[in-house]
Amino acid sequence: MNTAVLRTEFRLFRREPGAVFWIFLFPTLLLVILGSIPSFREADKSLGGLRPIDVYVPVTVLIALIMSGVQSLPQVLTGHRERGILRRMRLTPVRPSALLSAQMVVQGTVALASALLALVVGRLAFDVKLPEQPAGYLLALLLATGSALALGSVVSALSRTTKVASAIGSAVFFPMMFCAGVWLPVQQMPHTLARVVQLTPFGAAARALGEAAAGHWPGWGHLGVLAAWTVLLTAGAARWFRWE
């Protein structure tokens, strides 16, 4: 990977206050708002004795991934294609693939930093336990990050303009937020709905992160779903992506 391209993309990202807010700050801000509700700090039998705030920490982690993969990445890549930046790069020693790799590193790094911020704030502000199975949590988080970026790459590949990328991204955004458990934790969904949701990348990620947070190794079925989606979406993005 070209380090100069990577540094440039990081600088450009820092100049986008909207992206910085929605990916890095908003998930933790949402966690603070929810944690300020007294009922969210009380144990809930339907959640196996956990407090709602305990369940929502993994959810806020996934929100950062969804924001980064589905909203931010397609806008940047499609914008570069639309303005001819990718086409002009093909005439230089720097290949367009270097830009694509750099963008994935930037988006993934910021999303993971947002996840770390949510974990720290959850622990310090609301006494949420840190993941009791850190290795399993990290594995699930990395697979979820790969799925999110692969999904964003597919949206980029299917979008000819930034307006189309925004429309497709929005159409994907809300179902993925639902699957992640933003409006209703996966643990509280009806059995049939929960089984369907767990076949989606963010539904599987929500369960895997929740299991690792509770001290269990994430279910191999959930990890397998994440790995399968990452491979399939990456293959689709590679097939459909156009530099011009």
TrEMBL record:
Q: Which GO terms describe its molecular function?
A: ABC-type transporter activity
- Superkingdom of this protein's organism: Bacteria
State the protein's name: Transport permease protein
Q: How does it sit in the membrane?
A: Multi-pass membrane protein
A GO BP entry is:
response to antibiotic
Q: Which family does it belong to?
A: Belongs to the ABC-2 integral membrane protein family.
Transmembrane intervals = 20-40, 55-77, 98-125, 137-158, 165-186, 220-241
Domain ABC transmembrane type-2: from-to ranges: 18-244
Q: Which UniProt keywords apply?
A: Antibiotic resistance, Cell membrane, Membrane, Transmembrane, Transmembrane helix, Transport
The places in or outside the cell where this protein is found are: Cell membrane; Membrane
Name a GO CC annotation attached to this entry. Answer: ATP-binding cassette (ABC) transporter complex
Q: Which organism is it from?
A: Streptomyces fodineus
